[in-house]
């Protein structure tokens, strides 16, 4: 690992922007100077320029009660108005907001005027269903325009959305609905994935019915979009077809303004415990940073660019760079329903050619899997429209970075490697494409107005050439405002380690130039294909299986997905006596985890072992298991209660 990192850090290729790119770029070097001279003044200026306020704010940041921040506190705005109506009022109603491409090849083209009208109708329907200011609405949808319409309709009436990724199981959905006490669920019968319809409504039914009569109590209605045409069960009085109510609803709806700190959404993400945390984002600060970063990091020229962020709306990337950033900026974007390889391996590149995508934002996992298939696939398509490439979710290795630039970016498109998190709400560390000389593998520098530092364990800044922990040392506009219903957990998780500074959970190193290299999580959080999962969450799913006595999960490095889930389980003697084949046990536990949490959590490997490595105080030493899972010599075992245990486990794993 360390030699690998050292090699990375000696990366000396650099790609400065061309003069032409630099001179036409949205972001000019003066941005850094302005922000450095007056950080809060800089953000206030961005908020005034990028956002339309109903009541202008007079205060920028209130940090008198850390870690609870308010931004633009006395201003009021309507987030949906900012993403819709104002573009129509400015004469851009005919501009395409969304080029939507269904997986089977059906398409929809939606202008800003049309999107505005749809959202107004949906907002009226939500109000009729009794949804009001502050109510929570769960959204469990495929990648169809109604997902965006739903989010904006919820925002428009000052309610709070909680989007749950469509790949999560009914159990995961249920715990999120319960935690937020949602009143309404918006879903679809199903959506297209990998050449077939994957159903969604049945998972909602199961989640609401609960197990053993444990019926969900807060949800009053389920609003269902027809997309998959699959058979679904129907609960009269509770379930409502979208097409029965939205098209016929009135499209008169005046957006009311809400406070800047009005909650906009809750988005659940994994932490170091088994229970996902509901990250809370609010309105004015979030929208300001979403719009600012989308415009400057991607060099967006809204009149001419076609932007495409491939993320699902179930993740924060989909919230900020499919919904709020692009729409606040009046951008034209592509939205695609399906998976990259359906119905053929060139699907993404075909879409880029078809719509002339000029800015493309995807995850390294996808880039690496295309790299494996080979450049002949993308080379069949005309990708000359591409002028900026983005990467997000996990570190991008220099080899994949170079492939991305050369094969997808025609050897010239700047790559912005963007570091951020569900909690940060928007991009924090990234090159700016018209300014920064980019370096393969490094996220490089904090954006203007963002202040980060790399600290050692005792809180001292590390010097160039050294590694430590990534910390954000000043509040930022899109920062999380807390964990839904759990202010104590918010303080403990992010603010206790370094006092008044935000600890991101990532390791990082500074190279000789002071550029930041992300080194992955330092806690028990894994990053699988750019998606966050906790070891504890999967362990608790495993021990919930009747065969399992104990489980330990680690994230092992994986060539394509960055990390992969590897589980070590101790099976109860009674099940071993039944002579169940070890291989069968392993494979049924893999599926079990997939059913409990969702397919992304399914372990790559499950090893059945007799013991787990523990310290004298009983703490599992995952580090040693990771060594084993990655095929390395097992590290220092002196703190184990039983120093021989790793030998026993290795023999079992390797047999
Ligand atoms: C974690 C956040 C940000 C949206 C997608 C993931 C890792 C994110 C990068 C990057 C290296 C990255 C970090 C971070 N991460 N972007 N450019 N380089 N690592 O959101 O699920 O909240 O996960 O993803 O480890 O902490 P998330």
Would you mind describing this structure in some detail?
- There is one protein chain.
- This protein is α/β, with parallel strands linked by helices.
- The protein has a domain at 545-654: ANL, C-terminal domain (GMP Synthetase, Chain A, domain 3, 2-Layer Sandwich), CATH 3.30.300.30.
- The protein has 22 helices and 30 strands.
- An eight-stranded mixed sheet has the order 12-11-8-6-7-14-15-23, with helices on both faces. Strands 5-4-17-16-18-19-20 form a seven-stranded mixed sheet, sandwiched between helices.
- Helix 3 packs across helix 4 and helix 7 packs across helix 8.
- The radius of gyration is 24 Å and the shape is globular.
- It starts with a helix and ends with a helix.
- The mean pLDDT is 95.
- Bound molecules: 5'-O-[(S)-butoxy(hydroxy)phosphoryl]adenosine (WT7).
- 5'-O-[(S)-butoxy(hydroxy)phosphoryl]adenosine is lined by residues 269, 316-317, 392-395, 417-422, 443, 504-506, 518, 521, 527, 530-532.
Q: Gist?
A:
By secondary structure, this protein is an alpha/beta fold.
Small ligands present: 5'-O-[(S)-butoxy(hydroxy)phosphoryl]adenosine
Major β-sheet annotation? 8 strands, mixed
CATH superfamily of the domain at 545-654: ANL, C-terminal domain
The total strand number stands at: 30
Indicate the structural class: alpha/beta
CATH architecture of the domain at 545-654: 2-Layer Sandwich
Query: Helical residue percent?
Result: 25-40%
From the N-terminal CA to the C-terminal CA, the straight-line distance is 26 Å
Number of helices: 22
How would you write the strand order of the largest sheet?
A: 12-11-8-6-7-14-15-23
What's the level 1 CATH class of the domain at 545-654? Alpha Beta
Mean pLDDT: 95
- Share of residues in strands: 15-25%
| Overall body shape | globular
Write down the CATH topology of the domain at 545-654: GMP Synthetase, Chain A, domain 3
Cα Rg: 24 Å
Poorly predicted sequence stretches spanning 5 or more consecutive residues: none
